[in-house]
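User: My advisor asked me to double-check a structure prediction for BPTI/Kunitz inhibitor domain-containing protein before group meeting. I don't want to rely on an old file, so could you generate it fresh from this sequence?
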Amino acid sequence: MKVGPIKSCMKILPYRSMCPSGMPSQFTLRWFVKAGMCCAYPFGYCHGELVFNEEAIKTKKECEELCLGKIDSGNTFF
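Assistant: Sure, here is a fresh prediction for BPTI/Kunitz inhibitor domain-containing protein from the sequence you gave:
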């Protein structure tokens, strides 16, 4: 069984604008919980990093499910 990284409901700091290579980081949004709500914040990653293996939360839906315990009640067809 493959186990992924433990996701963090807290903001991952600091935002990196530059990579160790001297190139600018890639800007994207990540999510954290503030005052009981999922909020987006800027996140910078560098070329070559394994972004699928990070602990930062990538979507609002993922934040709500993992941090707030909300379950999507949308219709799903199999």
